[in-house]
Amino acid sequence: MRMSCGVYIMTNESHRTLYIGMSTHLVARVETHREGLVVGFTQKYRCTKLVYYESCEDEDQAYIREKQLKGWTRVKKVGLINQFNPRWKDVFEDLITDST
User: Is there a domain that residue 25 lies in?
Assistant: First the structure.
């Protein structure tokens, strides 16, 4: 499956902070977070670990899904991550594979 547009959740090493984002170029965007190149929240809280992602058909769908996820409680977000990635491992390499 060719994946470029989607939503993602990043966290830090302690898993205390969650960041939800969307992008039309998912791999490139997550890579900038991982490298600390995005000035702001993810850089400040060192959110460099990708723990969740999903593809979306287009930018509008990704934006709607991002807003939906951001409106969820932390418990519900953690449940989504646990269902997708129970060990909370960094799934960036999986994203790259899914994107090719």
Answer: yes
Q: Dihedral angle at the C-alpha atoms of 26, 86, 72, 95, nearest 10 degrees?
A: 10
CATH of the domain at 44: 3.40.1440.10
- Residues comprising the chain, all counted: 100
How many domains does the chain fold into? 1
Strands (E), 1-100: 6-11, 18-23, 49-55
Q: For residue 79, what are its two tokens?
A: 């449940």
pLDDT > 90? residue 4: no
In which domain, by residue range, is 20 found?
Answer: 6-99
Q: pLDDT (tens digit, 9 = 90+) per residue, 16-56?
A: 999 999 999 999 999 999 998 888 999 999 999 999 999 99
Cβ atoms of 60 and 22 within 8 Å: the answer is no
- pTM assigned to the model: 0.94
